[in-house]
Every structure is written in C-alpha cells, then in structure tokens.
Task: structure prediction
Amino acid sequence: MLEELSDRDRTILHSVIHIYVETAAPVASRTLCRRYRLGISSATVRHTMMELEDKGYVSRPHASAGRVPTDKGYRFYVDALMPRRSLSESEQEAFRQRVQDAVREEQVDRILEQVARALADMAKQLGVVLAPRFENGVLDRIELVPLTSQRLLLVLTIRSGLVKTVALRVDSLIRPEDVEETRQVLNQRLAGLTIREIRRSVGERMRGVGRGDPKIIQVIVDEAEELFWFSPFEDLYIGGIPYIFSQPEFRNPRRAKLLMGLLEEREVVSEVLSERVDLPGVYISIGREHRLRPMQSCSLLTATYQVGNLSGVVGILGPTRMRYWRLSALVQYAAQLVEELLQN
Result:
C-alpha cells in the first residue's frame, strides 16, 4: 500500500525524478526552484526534500550533493505520479518502419529480432523479446517436403500460425507416395495435441502404424526429443547492448561486469521474462525488487502479447533512471504490434 504523501511532497518528488532522469546529476533545491515555478520558497523546498529523504523516497550520494530518487521513490512515481500516455502516430510509424523488412520476409524469428532492435533504438536502452513458447502450442498440422532422395523437411505448424522447420535424414530411398501417406498418418495421430504431449508420447501414439514409410516414422519417433524441443533461451532476442553500457550508471566496471554476466546467461534472462508471461498490462519492476543481484541497479518494463493460445513477452531493461512515462507506452505498443504482425 502506498504511503500517503502531501501534494507538496508529490510535486517535489515528481520534479526531482524528471530532472534526475534528464541530467543523471543529483538535484539541488536551487535547481528545482530555477526549473519550476513551484510557488514556494527555496527554504520550503529544502525542508520538503529533507522530509522525502527521511521517508526514503530520495537520498544523497554524499553530504554536499543534491538528492537522487531511490527505488522507493521511483516505485511511488510509477504507481501514483506517472502520466499515462500512448505513442504518437509518428512514433508508431517510426517503430513500424524499423520492422518493415522483417515483415516482408514473413519470418517470425526475424520479426521478433527486429522488434527487439526497434525497442532498443527508440528507448536507447536494452530491448528484449521472448518468443511464444511452443511447448504449450497445439499442433495444427505436419508437412513433409522431400529435399533429396534421402532428406526431408519436417514442417510443424502450431495452431497460432507459428511454424518450425527441421531437416530429417532417412537411411533409405524416399518415395513420394510414401511421404504423402506418412504425412497423413502423422496428422491423424498427432494433430490436436500440444507439443509437450507429442514429445512425451509420440512413440506410444505411433506404435502399430500399418501405413506410411516405417523408416521415416522411426526417425521421427527416435528423434522426437530434438525435433519437438524448443529451447527457451534460443527464443530470446536481445537488442541494443551498446546503449545500456553507454549509460552513466554502467561506467562503473564492477556494475557493468555484473550486468554483462547476466546477459550472457540467456537461459536466466529467459526465465525472468517467462515469469511475467501471465501478467496483464505493462509490468514494471525496479532495482532491489529484483531477486537477481545484477538486475538490482536496473528497471525492467514488460508487456505480454498473445498469438492464438501462446504468449510471449516484450520488454526494456535499463538503469532505474529511465523515462518510465515514455517507455511504458513504447513497450505497450510493441506488444500490440507483435500480436498484429504474427496473427496476420
């Protein structure tokens, strides 16, 4: 529950945060008085800032400095003071233009990769996108496309419209008529199941099949763990690493090293995003609200997108000193755009 702050407290905290976000320098009372027409004396501003410090909303890096927002200050701002806005039409168009080439290619992975880069470019922070988890996707159909006399392309189409392709090798000559019959059998027995169900039970479900090419069926059964496995961290797209390390907060070598170590652990980052896949709206976590130490100097803004019965996540990671009011709108729009592009 939010602690009650007076209107004056709120005005001063709001002003401190906006100035600090723009300048990355501790904010002095005289700076507030100079930048804003607060209608109160500089002595009153100083007293209010001292009260905010006592309550934990701002702190002083050292005795002679001005104040900087704390995690508690940013949390109050996000929950109670932040203006809610949407991207302008020109900002939306700029975002769309950044992913247009990938849309023309009609490749899901390219679209998500470009969305991560577009988030990074427009936020000047780290853009992250987690692809929908195929594990929970329902198989719509399987296609088998002959490539050579002994190689096939297995095409898995998930009911949401997402597609995965895998090359298979069979130790015998492949006859086109057998390929078609095998495709029919596979669809009869596997279509309508989730990818997780198929991986766990494909051997049992294909037992006793009297039609199709037994060699192709055996390869699919034997390699099911690999063919129907979608590694979570391989579905993570990250853009804008140079942006985040150009921020003043990460000029500290120790802090930068911690964050770089986290980004190299892609599976860990995927897990952090996966935990947010069912959270509505734009979800914002700040500083020490994160359990992972490398993220405790960062804020993470995420939104979930839906593609059929599957969900993914888009987000922005950066220092706690960020333009929450703009970046929350950017993340929300990115999620809406990904839904639109993948469903179409």
Q: What stands out?
A: The domain at 7-81 is CATH 1.10.10.10 (Arc Repressor Mutant, subunit A). The CA atoms of residues 108 and 280 lie 23 Å apart.
